[in-house]
Design brief:
The protein contains three helices and 24 strands. With 282 residues, it is mainly β. It has a single domain, classed as Jelly Rolls, CATH 2.60.120. It is globular, with a radius of gyration of 18 Å. Its cofactor is Zn(2+).
Length: 282
């Protein structure tokens, strides 16, 4: 398997507030996740979340010793669970001899103890793009495909405030049990550009955002940092942002877009948010 792995260490807000724009990008933005025929992985020190992208083209991508070595175990999911959503063409995930066929926007949960994992595209000319998150796990729950139809659909926002959107909860206690990993997908409607506004914090969990379905010349201005000292990132399609517990995480795009959010930490309560008064943002 062709794999590229990185490690991102945790940053305190007092450090981030002294960083240049380039240093902010280096520490919090993952610019490349989908490379044809490769698996790109970033191991973070925020709740030990692993963020990865697999884009199989010619043949299978097999998860091997590179990622096991990264987390210090004999195989990747020896003490971890994994969730993914396919944002590309139709694909397959082979897990311990079971083949899981995934259409675009289908998700998959793999339990702690799954040893053999491989990724494949049905048509290499329209490759699958598996966006992957993995977090430490304390027990084993059943692996399961979570199709877009299985996800819980929520209508949020309003066109008058430019944030009308649909939020789909894939890995969520009302859908299936997991140890700590939560994943979902949000899609902005045409004419809406703001996500997660009013902003909030959740000091008990970290979050990662993957932005996608943006036109080539479009981008999202992602706001981060403490409410009283905000910073920003310019994020292109299929790039991801690491959001520490002390940081807000919201943004506005130059067009409608979609993003996958994922969380790991102390609890699985989706509503565990410390809301930020709009007047306090600086």
């Amino acid at each position: 398997m062709t794999a590229t792995v990185q490690t991102r260490h945790a940053i305190h807000y007092s450090q981030s507030e002294r960083m240049t724009g380039a240093e902010i990008r280096e520490n919090f933005l993952i610019e490349t996740l989908f490379v044809p025929g490769s698996l790109q992985a970033v191991y973070t020190h925020y709740d030990r979340m692993l963020v990865a992208g697999a884009m199989p083209t010619n043949g299978r991508l097999i998860v091997g010793e590179e990622l096991a070595k990264l987390v210090g175990t004999d195989y990747l999911l020896e003490r971890r669970e994994l969730g993914l959503i396919n944002i590309g063409g139709p694909g397959r995930v082979m897990a311990d001899g079971t083949t899981c066929d995934l259409e675009p926007m289908d998700g998959l949960y793999l339990s702690q103890g799954t040893q053999e994992i491989a990724f494949e595209s049905v048509d290499p000319s329209t490759p699958a793009k598996f966006y992957i998150n993995s977090a430490p796990a304390h027990t084993s729950f059943p692996s399961r495909i979570v199709s877009r139809m299985d996800a819980i659909e929520n209508d949020l926002g309003d066109g008058a405030t430019s944030n009308k959107r649909k939020l789909y909860q894939y890995l969520h206690p009302k859908v299936l049990p997991t140890c700590q990993l939560l994943m979902g997908l949000t899609r902005l409607e045409t004419g809406s550009v703001w996500n997660t506004m009013p902003a909030h914090l959740h000091d008990r969990r970290m979050e990662a955002y993957l932005y996608f379905d943006l036109p080539e010349n479009a981008f999202v201005v992602h706001l981060m940092g403490r409410p009283e000292a905000t910073e920003h990132l310019i994020v292109r399609s299929e790039q991801a942002v690491l959001s520490p517990p002390w940081s807000i995480h919201c943004g506005a795009g130059t067009s409608a877009y979609a993003f996958i959010w994922s969380m790991a930490g102390d609890n699985q309560s989706f509503t565990d948010m410390d809301m930020v008064d709009m007047k306090s943002l600086r």
